[in-house]
Amino acid sequence: MVRRSACRSERQDRVVFTALWLCVTLCAWLMLAPAAVEAQRADTVQLKNDVPLTYVVKRGDTLWDISGIYLEEPWRWPELWDSNPQIDNPHLIYPGDVLSLRWEDGRPRLGLASRGDVKLSPSVRSEALDTAIPPIPRDQIDPFLRANRVLEPGLLGSLAYVIAGDAKRIISGLGDRIYVRGPIDPEDRVFGIIREGSQIVDPITQEVLGITAIDIGTASLLPGEEASLTPEAVKEFEVTRMTEEIRIRDRLIPLEEGILDAFFQPKAPDVEVENGYMVAVTSGVTQVGPMNIVTVNRGAREGLELGDVLAIYQTGEVVKDPLKNEMVSLPDVRAGVLMLFSVYEKASYGLVLTATRPLSVGDKVMNP
Q1: How far is CA 227 from CA 107, 143, 190, 192, 272, in A?
Q2: Quick check: 120 and 140 in contact, CB under 8 A?
């Protein structure tokens, strides 16, 4: 009887232990499952509600616009686009093309269903490249980049400069000849004429990040001047373009080629952005909105690249706690999104893509 009772007790202990082990395992699974689901969900692009299964590309669309139709986070559009051979370069879609949404392994994919108005014959599509759908509205950016650039502090003083105009004029215009001294690279013949603009200063460290160069015009080195390109020699140029009168002491700088890569991809930064701020805005506006261009106090030195998308945050308001009678800062408020389209060493230019409230200089920028 004692042995049978002991065996029964032992079996009961094993049953109880097994039940407890299953209970603990189940509880652990119930606690970890939501986190696993959430991690998987965070790794998957989030579609908006009621997105269309097909979309016909329209003239005037941008990739950002199309991605904004489908995604809560449009900068993650490379994760949405299908990688099939028809659309291996997703920038090369055109008005009239039909896009189709489908799912693969639980992930949404947007692919090219058919080309619009294209004959089915073994020929190369003859439509001009500039009719392809761009990532962002180029007409907002190109004119700005031709007229604005950021120079490293100290660079301006090392550039060639205007010492005189033709016939002793102190200002010169289109078609006039100007006389220049300073270093000139023999391989360069066309130069931008610039004037010193405002400093870009980091609001936290007070470091001078760069100097904005104001576009004044363009000048070409006259034939026969190549023999006198020593820094001390006087070189003769002809003014071929002007935005305002050229003055003595204006500087000459080689023109940049390939100002903007037409096919860069909007994306989240590969680095953690810290202490980023909008430090300036163009056109003298005080309130910043969509399609305004701003200057950011972060650049290549901090690991930022063309196409990086940054979220814009406004500092939370300071309110009074009515019970404790003390001032309390509210959390920062997300107020928009911008994309960097020109990145210099210590500063960058960005285009505001969305804004849910009026923005201003001093607003923070960070990872989206």
Answers
A1: 64, 35, 16, 21, 51
A2: no
Sign of CA dihedral 274, 279, 282, 285: positive
Q: The domain 276-366: what is its CATH number?
A: 2.40.10.410
Owner of token pair 């700088």: 253
- The 10s digit of each residue's pLDDT in 163-221 is 999 888 889 999 999 999 999 887 888 999 999 999 999 999 999 999 999 899 999 99
CA 274 from chain centre, in angstroms, equals 16
Q: What DSSP character marks residue 48?
A: P
Q: By the 8 A CB rule, do 310 and 365 touch?
A: yes
First and final C-alpha spacing in the chain: 72
Structure tokens of 267? 């994306």
Handedness of CA 113, 119, 124, 129 (dihedral sign): negative
> For residues 254 and 192, is the Cβ–Cβ distance under 8 A?
yes
Burial class (CB in 10 A: 0-12, 13-18, 19+), 323: exposed
Sign of the four-CA dihedral 146, 147, 149, 154 = positive
d(CA 280, CA 274): 18
Residues near 90 by beta carbon (within 8 Å), at least 6 away in sequence:
63, 78, 81
Quickly list H helices, the chain: 2-43, 63-70, 77-80, 142-147
Q: State the maximum Cα–Cα separation within the chain, in Å, rounded to a whole number.
A: 128
The pLDDT value recorded for residue 129 is 40
pLDDT of residue 113: 81
How far, in Å, CA of 169 to CA of 212, rounded?
Answer: 27
* Mean pLDDT of the 248-263 span: 71
The bridge status of strand 276-281 relative to strand 364-366 is antiparallel
pLDDT tens per residue, range 293-304: 899 999 999 999
Distance CA 10, CA 5 (A): 9
- Residue ranges, comma separated, of all CATH 2.40.10.410 domains in the chain are 276-366
